[in-house]
Known about the structure:
Layout lengths: L1 H10 L4 E4 L2 E6 L7 E11 L2 E8 L20 E2 L2 H4 L9 H16 L9 H5 L14 H7 L15
Parallel strand pairs: 3-5
Antiparallel strand pairs: 1-2, 2-3, 3-4
Amino acid sequence: MEEALIRLCAGYGVLTGRVQGRTGVWTNTVPGREKKIGAIGVHVSRGITSHGFAFNLSTDLRDFQWIVPCGIADREVTSLDLEIPDPAQLPTLEQLADTAARHFGQVFDQQILALSGLDALRSNLIEQVGIPMQVPEEVQRLMGNATGSDPASSPVRV
């Protein structure tokens, strides 16, 4: 995930990298002066792993003065709009999402399919790929299937 976000930043002329022992994507790779532009998180609950990232495009950073972001007190956070060399090149959120998806697809060597939200996932618009999977009960509940129903009979599309 870090690699995809590093490539995303590079495409907008912002040099970023990793900081040993810390997750996320960091600007200004001078040791001790890095600023976090992208955060990565992982959550495991009842056998289901969720992961994701937060990327600061044009985030109002004033609220970060009231918290310790990611538990890191000795570094600041930043955003693409503060770091981009040419502000006229600042993408919209949709443009950034499309570019990020392309980089994730390249890094993971997978086709990325865009969904507009859970409603699109629930609508079963995507053809099933590969072997049918066992759908976790939480996902079945989101899709409106009764708990305990046969996951193979549910047309979940991944």
